[in-house]
Structures are given as structure tokens and as C-alpha cells.
Amino acid sequence: MAEPSLHLKKLEGKVAIITGGASGIGEATARLFSTHGALLVVIADIQDEKGQKVAESIGSNNCSYVHCDVSDENQVQGMVEWTLKTHGRLDIMFANAGIFNKSPQTVPDLNLSDLQHVFSVNVAGTAACVKHAARAMIDQGIKGSIVCTASTAASRGAEVRTDYYMSKHAVLGLMRCASKQLGEHGIRVNSVSPYMVATPLVCNNLNMTVEEAEASYPLPCLKGRALKANNVADAVLFLASDDSSCITGHDLLVDGGSKI
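C-alpha cells predicted for (+)-cis,trans-nepetalactol synthase NEPS2:
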């Protein structure tokens, strides 16, 4: 990745938290944020070994790893408080952590225990990140940016994975409510909705290699192209930076025209 010139660094001096930052979209975003001059990127995840390796590879001067299970609000609060205590501010929250079940989860056979597990991370976990980031930004008087990872699943139905689709619909509702309520504090809240990306989580659940997953899910209207984590990271950078200073309450599709 080419180093942007100093005047093109879009996050100069910013402090950002990225949940689910140890791999996939979160990792790609952490690397991009660092390249664009972020003072500190806090990678939060439950994959300790991976998260620590990513932080070390980015560099200890501007990247730290914190263990955080977002389904536990106390851990989310502790992560935000640690960031404030250690680095004095919080400018960007990328609430990216998410999961889905391997089971098909059709409505007639819906397992509510599995549904609650998905919701504990994708919905409650995202809400906890938005809540505690908002409180920190309000207390500091910082006109920050909060970005949530939704999905193309957030605006359509499906024949399987009902619990996952429901959870991503809820993320959009959260984002839209938060953008309405936090705008008076100058805090912007948006979401990014990617099409299928062959992340380690996705490939593991589909029992496919990256190459197999990308071949199975090409971008609908862009022949010969598959969505990469870096493509989504570029969209998150836009929403996190001042390039989108007048954009809030927006769900940015990164889907290769899947709805055309």
C-alpha cells in the first residue's frame, strides 16, 4: 500500500477504536487508518493472538490491542475508558465486530438461543459501542464519527440465515436513531453495508477457501471482480474522515451494484 503524502493523510492526530479489528474488514481498516495518520488505532477483538500480531505489525507507536467481547457491555465500557485514560481522546468508533451461525436458521426451525447469541454481538454489542463512544465524545466535546458495519442483508430478506438478516436490519435502525439523537452534539453516525467479503470468518463458516468464496460470490454488476476487505476499508475511511463532514444517517452500500 502506497504511503499517502502528508497533505493527503485524512486522520492526522485522530484516535480510533475498531472492534473486530484482528482480521478481515477490521484489520484492513486498522492498517488504512494508520497509513492515513491516525495518532492511535485501538484494535479490539477476542482473537488475542491475531490482534496482537496485527497491532505489532502496524507498530506500537500508533496501534494497540485490547481484548474486548462486545457482547459484554462492561468490557466495551472498559475499552473506551482505557482509550481515554491512555490516549486522552476518542475521535472515531468503528463498530465492526459481528458473527453469524453456520446453521441455516429458517423461520419454521428458528433456534432462539442461536438467535440471541447472534443478537448479543451484532445488535447489543454494536449498540454498546455506539453508546459508550457517544458518551465519551459528548463529555469531551469532540465532534466525532461513529461507523457501524451493517450489510446488504440489512435491506433484504433471504431463504436462510434469518437471525443474521434480522440483526443487520437492527443495526440500520440503531444507526438512524443515533444519527438523529447525536447530531446536536456534532457527532456523525453512519454505516457501511458490504456485499459478501471473503474474510476468515466468512470462509470458515462457508467451509471455503478465499479463492472459492470469491469465485462463488462475484460482484453482481462488475464482471470479473470480487469485493475485498480493502474496498470496504476505503468506504469506512471516507465515513470516518472529514471528507464526509456533512454526511450522517447514511448507509453506504459497497456492493458492486447488487441492487441495480
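The chain has one domain: 15-250.
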